[in-house]
Amino acid sequence: MNDPKRDVAAGIPEKFSNIRLSKPMDYAAGKLAVAKTLQHGFMEMGVVKSFRALFSMNQNDGFDCPSCAWGDPEHPSKIGEYCENGAKALADEATNSHIGATFFKNNSVEELARLTDYELNKLGRITEPLVLRPGSVYYAPISWQEAFELMAAELHKLPSPDEAIFYTSGRSSNEAAFLYGMFARAFGTNNMPDCSNMCHESSGVALSETLGIGKGSVKLEDLHEAEVIIVAGQNPGTNHPRMLTALEKCKENGGHVISINPLEESGLVRFKNPQTIKGMLGNGEQIADVHLPVRINQDIPLLKLIIKKLALLDQKSEQVFDHNFIEKYTQGYNDLMTDLATYEEADLLVKCGVEEELINQTVGLLANKSKIIVCWAMGLTQHKNGVANIREYINLILLKGALGKPGAGTCPVRGHSNVQGDRSVGIMHFVDKDLNKRIAEHLGFNAPEKEGFDVVKAMQAMHEGKAKIFMALGGNFLMAASDTEYTADALKRCDLTVQVSTKLNRSHLVTGKTALILPTFGRSEKDEKAGELRYITVENSMGKVKKSRGLLKPASNKIMSEPEIVANLAHTYFKGNHPVDWIAMGDDYSLIRDKIDKVAKGFDSTEQRIKNSGYYLPNNVRNLDFSMLPNGKAQLTINSLSELRTKKDEFVLMTIRSHDQFNTTIYGLDDRYRGVYNERRVVFMNPKDIKKLGLKDLEVVDMTSHYDNTKRTAKKFKIVPYAIPVGNLAAYYPETNVLIPYNHFADQSHTPISKSVIVKIVGNRELETV
Ligand SMILES: Nc1nc2c(c(=O)[nH]1)N[C@H]1C(S)=C(S)[C@@H](COP(=O)(O)OP(=O)(O)OC[C@H]3O[C@@H](n4cnc5c(=O)[nH]c(N)nc54)[C@H](O)[C@@H]3O)O[C@H]1N2
Ligand SMILES: Nc1nc2c(c(=O)[nH]1)N[C@H]1C(S)=C(S)[C@@H](COP(=O)(O)OP(=O)(O)OC[C@H]3O[C@@H](n4cnc5c(=O)[nH]c(N)nc54)[C@H](O)[C@@H]3O)O[C@H]1N2
Ligand SMILES: [Mo]
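Structure tokens predicted for Oxidoreductase alpha (Molybdopterin) subunit (770 residues):
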């Protein structure tokens, strides 16, 4: 049993700050964004360091932005190739605030758990390895060697390798992720849950099934050339701000943008590009030509209606669907059309909740265009029917023949800066037989053949006592996974939990019997070995592999690079007796890259090909090669409507990001574009619903969810009136994860239902003044 003193609350303290509301902004970026960029940079890093780092970020010889995975142009802008939120991510990692042994001696885990996630993150970079021993409430320093020996001893104690879990968050480099994935396999398990299980797994599944590759097909330049870009379930102004530059170029070239989203997000209204005079001094560029405010999780009826209307036009003129393409490259057209005929237009219209006039405009924009790109993110993936959502959008792309040519294709916009690369080099819970063959051939050991745990299975295994060691290469598993209390219990039942991390978060405070913190470098920092400056590689959202080399002085001389941490763990575990020379690889990353070329699919001559701006991995969709699919064809699919049903007093809640956070890392308390300042504990509600419930603006309420006879409660949120469909709510993650049941997730992909949680609003008048 755990020491009761360490049985700290899992959730975030429910404190309010002084909220201020204003009108949502009708543009993104502009002068204010530049000011915010500099403000965050200067406050955390000082002026000189800020400018040095910002001018190196995303340059060909610099480091890759640690924020999102959006691609870089072939020739990055010399005045700076970054956005406000990339700059915040940099300032957050390169902060001058540091915490080490003395800090932890004076602050117990209990005391630290009383801080909010925002306050925890503000404490700064962790500067030395630390251990929390059984029964103690204080982290104490530990030497690196002792830490590796402790981990090796615990791993040896397990009756089965399948009792260990190796989680990865998408910030790791290809090199670190490759070594980590290979160590897990050499140790004997495929238990490699990954942040992508909670993120784009639905995209990976849908794309693999229909197009034969789990990644998108477009390159950055394709967006510039597209005739129509659909942005569905994604908020680029906040989460992928540099994408707005690409949308702007599309518009300048005469293209059109369609936004499909329950919210009209500022970045899709208008963009004031800070790199241009028009953007800084003028009105900027209008982005979306049409905005379709779809009800949450009703994309399928909307798409069916759009496709039905296009089919009707197609019957009148030959131009609308690309019949040559359909005939040559796809399978399932007749079945799809037969199925579509069974739906009533009026019913689809009611379900999606969008005005017909807007749908007709959309159909008008799409009808005679074929260079179409669909971009999407979490608004499509994090539903029970996440995979089906994406398949339905792929139907539209296939019917229009919008693949395998410039300006057309699929664009799942990835989250973490290297989440795609981590998967490409072998972070996966499922078994890839070809990969295993290459591992045997080039690394000299046999990888396990049994499927491992993804995120939801890992939570359950720990909860049920079937897994006893949890190691995380980055991330914040506790706050990122659904059902915070359940996940906390799961972690607390482990014998050992290990966090390789840069900054403190709640996963360091709710731990197994023994816990380790292994501090590592951020992207922006110099990784030197024997006087040699090392670099790593990453893969962006468009499948391009590129090198990244930091330039700042590391936060401390006691931190270790991720590849070296993994190499040392492996070496200590195998006591030097293993076909892989782990230490040599941890020292010299070019040896890792050489093995990646041999073992991971598509990588080739990486060391030479990343010398300049990098290289694209092969992508069958770009060549219209569907030979790996049934009958060698891309698959049109039949997807049923969402089964989501709410009762009279229930709402559908989507848990989304504010403008001032990176996932569970909270940079600040403002959501400028949505007009909310100095508070995160808010719930956005349609004014009609506020009136119907007899609530007042800013009134304090609780939210409850009721799945499988279990009531879950998220306490104390202030009601914010907002333009959101009636019956729908939005609130920020991770504060709302307590509401999301661990055992409700997307079919096939197992992604938690973070964007369609059914909740009730519980009035709380006595809390009004809190
Ligand atoms: N600054 C910053 N950048 C980030 C991140 C961050 O936290 N901060 N996170 C990174 C990561 S890991 C990821 S995965 C991405 C996430 O990027 P996004 O997916 O843009 O992030 P969310 O805030 O989850 O936004 C989801 C969007 O989908 C909409 N939506 C919700 N439900 C539906 C629906 O049913 N249908 C449709 N059509 N739309 C819907 C919401 O209104 C919202 O605009 O961003 C990455 N980049
Ligand atoms: N309700 C709800 N839940 C969600 C989502 C949602 O939209 N709604 N989104 C989901 C998505 S899309 C994702 S991707 C997951 C995110 O899940 P995670 O990837 O697990 O979470 P992050 O918040 O990105 O992890 C932040 C931590 O990573 C560490 N870190 C930062 N940089 C580095 C580095 O360079 N190296 C190492 N080793 N550590 C580093 C820091 O300690 C920091 O505290 O959350 C998921 N959870
Ligand atoms: Mo993500």
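The chain has three domains: 4-25+645-767, 98-198+426-616, 202-412.
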